[in-house]
Input
Amino acid sequence: MKRIGFLFFVSLLIFSSCKAPSDRERSEKDHLRIVYTDWSESMALTYLTSILLERDLGFGVSLKMTEVDNVFNEIASAEADIFVDAWLPSTHSEYLALYENRIEVLGINYQPARTGFVVPKYMDIESIGQLNDYYTGPIAGIDTTAGIMRVAREVIEAYGLQNELRVLSEEQMIGELRNAVRRQERIVITGWDPHWMFFRYDLKFLMDPLEIFMQEEQIYSIARTGFADENPVVATFLERMVLTERQMKSLLFEMHLSADPREGVKKWIKENEFVVNQWTRGLTPQRKKIM
Output
């Protein structure tokens, strides 16, 4: 009897050891790692994506905020799965070139997007080329590794501008814009649209006759190589998740108004259930895990 019990115990161990890896692999496949930056539209798109993946498709999601150069490095090295705020064909092109064949583009989330030098409308200036005669103060930028900062440095050199490009956080940049507008002072920032600042302040892009800033870009979802084949449900969802200009601006507005950005995004989802249902329609949710 003892021998039978021992053999049963050994068999159980063997069965468990054979089964455990597949359970673990399934668990890892059902858990998605999303990286993002602290830029407004990146936060909005990331929270929107993660909430719907968890609520409607049954995935576990972990989020990590980091600098944009780390974002692309982690996607390329498979330390992360998804980034939903890649600006192409210009702003983030250097990162795709750097990690060629290690990143796959899944689909467009929003268009048209735009970057450039932005000023309040009360400033009597229309073109970047006029800056040397009109404003030689500092240009308020964002973190140094951002794609818009790379292009801004190219613009300053190409136009022979005397302006210093300051490295700030997005929050600090917006703070300087807010203070300047309140005092009706001159200011130039590295701006981008979509952004909530365009419905908070009367702003305009400076024309770029040399066309160094792209007049129009698209925001894409990207993933580590092989992700779409391994996760066709998620890939299909991200290909469908395309926001119109009105939808994007209302999403950013709700997030900006809320003390908790995620709650603002949840409010937007509740008010746009018909839209989000089109993104998840027909996609099979992951089975709930039984504890």
Q: What stands out?
A: The chain is about 50% helix and 20% strand. Residues 52 and 179 are 37 Å apart (CA to CA).
